């Protein structure tokens, strides 16, 4: 079968918890109404057994595949989703939603607070990875799906997959956490905190109340530049940039004259056009606070459940090192769950989950086949 | 022999290149007069053969050992310098100077520009690691020392030791570059650039002209926080902080509630009290531009010279990984120079060069003994 794009797609919106405060958060605070932006690709089978939920990373959104009308760039995991691809839309019904707290169509700090008719800003309650997943479950309920074939994502997407295992293991048949962790190490928290501090140090941030004026673009750009260093590896940076300098004359002493500096600036400048600084604060805090075994050891939660888990890590990923993925495998084995582990030999660092398409396609398509077959036999 | 502190010390100042523009920089720009803050410990032998030059890292200064009157904290490498210590002041005359471009008593961007009678700010010329070393050579000349027994330092101090090998190999008998590199990788440049961007994004920076008003403390603190993450290791952070939270109630959503966050804040806040933001820009840029083989391959420069080199790296140092130290050893071997290499098994990350005192004392005291003996035999 030839591999192809899903073609032109549109983002849809699902609003629930319509009365104010109808959605209870893990913090006991309440929120409502809640909207999730989402996209779907492929067709839901009559028995609704072929649904896959794709979970995005920190800066991702609902647009995982295909093209929005007029766009030249496809969705963020396009080469994984489509006819003949890893998430084969000839076989599977693929869903991706923007997370709660995000700024790409879902309810977040930039949304209008019904109590004040102004953006929430920091009046938005602290949310958790568990809250993001609870909102996704409301969407799955709305779509009439009882059991997802799998939940899958890299980085924060992987943490959401783990949160599905924690909260709704009876609503999924499998999970594929990629390049993630049961909980953040202090180093991961530290990187996030420096990003948050960069945002909050920007006077344009104004304690979050910047929606009527200039947004804290400089601080958010610094946070994003730092992020990008952690997404790459020493080797991938050496291969991509070396110590090459840009040829044009640089009149200012501290101009970004190394190519790697120019790349980071470009990434930072682009990011601020599409991302909300307060969302960055809320989402990174949710990641830092996540701990899959916080309420109950995860192996106890999962013990004896009919689940399959595929854990993927990447050799040069120093932001989410492979030892953290092995801890996930260990918990699954402890719980008696079928868990496969693969450490892919990649030089791309953490970004590998977006780039090692051939290897991921191989691993995931086989895994999905085995999960589907298992069900057939049951 | 018992190990002891050198006791109370005072910083001295050496001014040279007294007429304006008397000191030529590698950029062909000129500077003058130039002052270096420096300290000495121990006594210079009559034949002046026992002098050791200690070279400090990015945020260090001339105060390497002993106590300034009234201070409770000793110099930054105190446990390495003193009677019976690695740099035994009963045997050696130990010198440490603050680098050119610094802000701890040496001429730098905060110094008064004789042309304007105002601080240089960004009118200060771009300086190089080679310029720092050229200024140190003027100090050594002034002290009447023909040949240094060794030049030694960690991190940027190690890069200065390499610059001594490049520029003045006839003025030293040995060198001890610790936890450093022949040149920065793009990842190292990238971390520095994010720090610089954090400073320059701070509106109080005012293109460097902040000396009459508020200084860009928020930006500099963010740069320093990021620095501290890179100085530690994943393991050392896990051991020191884990995911512990501070007990006091945190009313603000994005308060630093994890201990690791509080530690970074503390480090950032303290740093801005003693460091100049423009110096941070100039010094990091000098590190990024450094390339020991830029003008001529280093192995050709060193070929056949009567030098000994001890290279030290640390296992968990991911900022200056051991492979970079091995490249230094390779160059020395290629040049036919006696080079020893030790990769110390430490969990402290890059900070290990300040903390692995026992191991360093063992390696360095033996090395110095062999360098001294070699001279005796020659």
List the helices and strands and how they pair.
The structure is a homodimer of 378-residue chains.
Chain A: E1 12-16, E2 23-24, E3 30-31, E4 34-41, E5 51-55, E6 81-82, E7 87-88, E8 93-97, E9 112-113, E10 118-119, H1 129-142, E11 150-154, H2 156-167, E12 174-178, H3 186-200, H4 217-231, H5 234-240, H6 259-274, H7 277-289, H8 298-302, E13 308-314, H9 322-335, E14 338-344, H10 352-355, H11 357-377
Parallel strand pairs in A: 5-8, 5-11, 6-7, 11-12, 12-13, 13-14
Antiparallel strand pairs in A: 1-4, 2-3, 4-8, 9-10
Helix pairs in contact in A: 1-2, 3-4, 3-7, 4-6
Quick take:
With 378 residues, chain A is of the alpha/beta class.
Give a structural overview:
- The structure is a homodimer of 378-residue chains.
- Chain A folds into 2 domains: 258 residues, Rossmann fold; 98 residues, Rna Polymerase Sigma Factor, Chain: A, CATH 1.10.1740.
- By secondary structure, chain A is an alpha/beta fold.
- In chain A, a hairpin with a 5-residue loop joins strand 2 and strand 3.
- In chain A, strands 1-4-8-5-11-12-13-14 form an 8-stranded mixed beta sheet, with helices on both faces. In chain A, strands 2-3 form a two-stranded antiparallel sheet. A two-stranded parallel ribbon of chain A has the order 6-7.
- Chain A has 11 helices and 14 strands.
């Amino acid at each position: 079968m030839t591999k192809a794009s899903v073609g032109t797609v549109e983002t849809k919106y699902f609003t629930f918890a319509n009365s104010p405060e109808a959605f209870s958060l893990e913090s006991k605070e309440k929120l409502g109404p809640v909207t999730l932006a989402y996209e779907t690709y492929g067709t839901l089978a009559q028995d609704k057994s072929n649904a896959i939920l794709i979970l995005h990373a920190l800066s991702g959104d609902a647009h995982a595949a295909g093209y929005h009308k007029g766009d030249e760039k496809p969705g963020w995991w396009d080469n994984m989703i489509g006819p003949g691809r890893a998430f084969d839309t000839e076989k599977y019904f693929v869903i991706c939603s923007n997370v709660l707290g995000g700024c790409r169509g879902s309810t977040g700090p930039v949304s209008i607070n019904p109590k004040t008719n102004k953006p929430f800003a920091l009046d938005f309650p602290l949310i958790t990875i568990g809250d993001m997943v609870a909102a996704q479950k409301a969407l799955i309920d709305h779509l009439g799906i009882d059991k997802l074939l799998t939940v899958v994502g890299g980085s924060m997407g992987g943490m959401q997959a783990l949160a599905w295992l924690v909260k709704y293991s009876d609503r999924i048949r499998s999970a594929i956490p990629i390049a993630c962790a049961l909980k953040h190490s202090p180093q991961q928290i530290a990187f996030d905190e420096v990003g948050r501090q960069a945002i909050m140090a920007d006077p344009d941030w104004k304690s979050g109340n910047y929606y009527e004026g200039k947004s804290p673009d400089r601080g958010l750009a610094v946070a994003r530049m730092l992020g990008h260093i952690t997404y790459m590896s020493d080797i991938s940076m050496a291969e991509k940039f070396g110590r090459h300098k840009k040829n044009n004359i640089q009149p200012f002493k501290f101009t970004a004259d190394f190519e790697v500096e120019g790349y980071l600036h470009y990434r930072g400048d682009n990011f601020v056009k599409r991302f909300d600084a307060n969302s960055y604060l809320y989402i990174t805090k949710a990641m830092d606070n996540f701990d899959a075994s916080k309420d109950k050891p995860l192996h106890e939660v999962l013990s004896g459940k009919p689940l399959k888990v595929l854990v993927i890590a990447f050799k040069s990923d120093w932001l989410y090192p492979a030892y953290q993925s092995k801890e996930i495998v260990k918990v699954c084995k402890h719980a008696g769950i079928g868990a496969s582990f693969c450490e892919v030999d990649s030089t791309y660092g953490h970004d590998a989950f977006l780039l090692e398409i051939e290897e991921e396609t191989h691993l995931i398509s086989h895994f999905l086949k085995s999960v589907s077959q298992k069900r057939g036999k049951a």
